[in-house]
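Progress report, Aim 2. The chain analyzed during this reporting quarter is listed below.
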Amino acid sequence: MAKRSKGRPVDGILLLNKAIGISSNKALQQAKGVYFAQKAGHTGALDPLATGMLPICFGEATKFTQFLLDTDKTYVVRAKLGERTTTSDSDGEIVSTKDVNVTVEQLSAEIAKFLGESDQYPSMYSALKYEGRPLYKYAREGIEVPRKCRKINVFSLTLDEFDEANNEVQMTAHVSKGTYIRTIVDDLGENLGCGAHVIMLHRSAVGHYPADKMVTLEQLEALLAKAKQQDLSPSTYLDELLLPMDTALVDLPVVEISQEQGVSFSHGQAVVLGSELPDGALKVLADGVFIGTGEKNADGHLKSKRGLSNQQEATE
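Predicted structure tokens for the chain:
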């Protein structure tokens, strides 16, 4: 007998505004519980210290989380100059304290050096894994393990405020996937000769998603309570907050096929089109309805890469 899934089928993307002090996984589980969803996953962890945009993918949307993991991000970060910590943020222990003798001109000049492509070594206090274990677990045991250098791109890094009285700097960073803001701040402090660490980090954007679409767990819980009070389905207010799952694919080329071709596509059959297909992942619509992602096969025909289980459009 097939095992029944706990929860209800929910498809879509929620832009959660993660609160400070909780892990991304705990925030995910709480959101999943409020929605009573069968399946959910987040798209890029935020440290407990960090707040801001944490896209939660429900149901069929979990098939497309990689596209959000791969997209660029925007952060607002506040750093304390003069103190370096074990974790490069205020959750760690202070390992060095130095006087701060920095002018705004020096600060601006050093910040500008981070622009463009560069190599970055992930922090030992990151969630990346080495031999199946997160790096931060090794770090907590005082063990240093090899880390692969990764290519990052800092599209912009602007100085928003320099509070000289308190030795605090606030910046806005638009960066490529996999960029550790803590590492940038730590490197900035070393380049200035005084040390620095993150005291506030807020992710304001993931790809094209706007900040004003974010909701907090408290707001979700209030809507759930409102629905119960009115003896309505919990989905009445909650599901209105979900974005269509194909909003994660806005950067992909779109391929339009007929409904009949869509049936073949969903059954794993290659679709022959009259025009040449571009390389890479493609967003596929059947008579205007999103049915999944595809790619060009060796014969130049359209084949399915990630299809929806039920072919129901989640963009309505």
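Residues 217-229 form the longest helix (13 residues). The radius of gyration is 23 Å. These observations will guide the mutagenesis work planned for the next reporting period.
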